[in-house]
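Let's practice the habit of predicting before peeking. Look at the sequence and jot down your guess about where helices and strands might fall. Then scroll down.
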Amino acid sequence: MSHPVRTARRHIQAEHASVVDGIDACADAIIEPWDTARTTNREAIVGGLHRSLEESGILGALPGVLVDVVSATDSQLRANPVPAPPYVVVTSRGPVLRATIDPGRLVIRFDAFDVVRDSDPGKPPAYRRRDGVRLTVSLE
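Done guessing? Here is the structure:
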């Protein structure tokens, strides 16, 4: 594990726990009306989570988290990030933040959902709510 990855993870856990908690609450809000533990409707996850993050203000806060984390790694961004690709993307697992820094591409994942693939390749994947949010930081 590289030093920027460890620094970024620790910084998010220490300084941005409220954002992680907000992502968790938004994910809970979109699954509340479900009558099962999972869905195969990808748009229900991506669209629902995007709307919930936007309405709660979390989506707008994510570029600031990215700026702060990059600064904590003693790196600099080449441009000011916005709450849209390529810096912030809402996926079927949760929000992803990306920045190119000197050692490589910093990728921060906030996984609120798991993708469950069926052994039958003809069946669509299902999306299941995780117990909390898994934070993953990598340098690619």
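How did you do? The radius of gyration is 15 Å.
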